[in-house]
Amino acid sequence: MKEVSVLIVDDSRISYTMLKNILAKTNFKVCDYARNSNEAVEKYQQHKPDLITMDMNLPGQNGIETSRRILEINPQAKILMISAMKDAQLMTQGREVGISSFLQKPVVPYEFIDTLLLLYQNEFNTGDLLIESYIHPLLKIFQNEIMQLYGIESKMSFHENIEKENTITGTAVIIGLTGNPTGRVVLYAADTVMIALAHLMLHIEPDEKLNDEDAREAFAEAGNIIVGNYVSQIDDTLKDKDMRISPPGMIRGHKMKIVNLKMRSFIIVAVTDIGELALSISFAGGKE
């Protein structure tokens, strides 16, 4: 990806420095910094940046009004609102003006970079939009949730599954994706790995007996948490998406076939000290 210019609008030099430092080793390059509404409009016209980060609380006109002024100049301007407040009313006002996405302070570095990447890819359609917009964020969420749920580190890899079906042995949690886009997520692992993960999640000693039903319910809940957090991030980042998840279902068996007809499918594998945990995500209709 070529260098992408970013204009930071924030009345706090500390906030500006934090955002600038996050972007320092990326292809996002800060072209300038504005402290108030008039400066923001002036520097937008001067630099014509690819992306803008906009603080809500600016002296004089606030971030929403400043965004309105910039969007009157260029209705296609991509603006990321970053504010200490992130309530429904603020987001509704921002979307009515035309603000592209929202994050809450203090920003999480990977979420900040991912959000800028999604906004840029969505606008200029460079590279494979499906992978950049949907798979890369899922990789990071999957890894983070494994640490949060189980307290273990993992190494991630992914590949596109070009086969018409995926063969699974063990236990699988199936969660449907509805809205835009539609699809399906399958979290699966060997039974021995599933049981070991349930012990960690439920804080049960490894040598303590765990009944099969509790282990399966823990695995289903983990899938629900992982996919729910993923869908929430996509919906927050891409304003024209409205993804939802269906209640999880479970299957268990040997060499089960998951069919991927008319779907573009990816497999993410998390390698941990207790075994592999895999996640398959498929989108209806192939490439967007």
TrEMBL record:
GO terms for biological process: chemotaxis; phosphorelay signal transduction system. Pfam families: CheX, Response_reg. Transmembrane segments: none annotated. The keyword Ribosomal protein does not apply. Residues 5-120 form the Response regulatory domain. Keywords: Chemotaxis, Phosphoprotein. The modification 4-aspartylphosphate is found at D55. This is Chemotaxis phosphatase CheX. It comes from Propionispira arboris.
